Amino acid sequence: MIRYTPLLDLTEFCFGRFDHPGEEHHHDPKLEVTSEYSVSRVEKGKFSLEIEGGLWELGPGHYFLNCAGMEYRCRHFELVPTDVCVSINYLASANSPEQTDRFERAARKQPVHSPSNRLAYLFLQLAKSREEPMRAEEAVHEVIAEILRYSDHAREPYRDRQLSWYAERVDAARQQMDRCYAQEQRLALLARSVGMSEFHFARIFRELVGVPPHAYLRRRRLSEAARRLRDRVSVTDACFGSGFQNLSHFTRQFCREFGINPSVYARQDKHRAGDL
To answer: Where in the sequence is the domain holding 240, given as residue range(s)?
Structure first.
C-alpha cells in the first residue's frame, strides 16, 4: 500500500510525500500508467523502476520524471518498504506548450536522473515555502527549468547535513542582498558574513542558486528599479535609488533584462495607469 500526504496544493500544481504504512505488506502492481506530469525525488530507501524498457535502481537523491501516458513499474526489495519520495505534480497548462513538449521529450529520453545539488536545493526551498505560494510556484518552475538543462556531469551530491549548512548560508546571503540591494556589496565581505571563503562561497552560491552572486544582485536591483518606475520615480532616481552607480550602465542592463528602455517602460506604465 502506498500512502500520499499532501504538503502543498495550489491551482496549477501540488507537492506531496509518498511512503508506506509501517504495518502493511506491499504488493507492487505489474504495470502502471501515469496521467500526470511530475518530478519526484527519492528521500529515503531504495527501489527499482522500470520505464518503457529501461531499468534503474534508485536511492536517496535520485530523481525520476513522469509524463501523461508513460508506462512504469516500481519494484521494492522489502515486504514493508521504507522508501519515501516527494513529488511535484503539475498541470500541463502551468507551462507553455513548448516547455511541456520539451519536458515530455526529456522524460521519455532520460526518465531517471542522478543526484543533483542544484535540484536538492530547489526541493529544499520548495519544502520551506509551504506558507508562501508565490515562492513555491517559483521553485517549481525552477525545478522544471533545471530538469530541462540537466547535465550528467553534475557535481558529487552533498550529504544532507552539508546541503543544509550550505543552504542556510546561501539563503542568508540572498536575504542580505535583498535587504541591502542599494548598498555596495563586495564578494569577500558577503562570503565572510556567512562564514565561508570567497572562492568557496562563489562556487556554492552559483551551483545552488543557478546564477553567480553579482547576477543575483543585479536582478534584484533591476526589479527594484522597475518597481520605482511604476511608482512614478524618475529614471535617474530609479537608477541610483536601486543601487546602480552609472546611468548608462543601468539603461543597458534594464534593456537587456526587460527588453525595453527604462524611460519607455515608465511612459508605458503611466499610460496603463491612465486607462484604469
So the answer is: 216-275
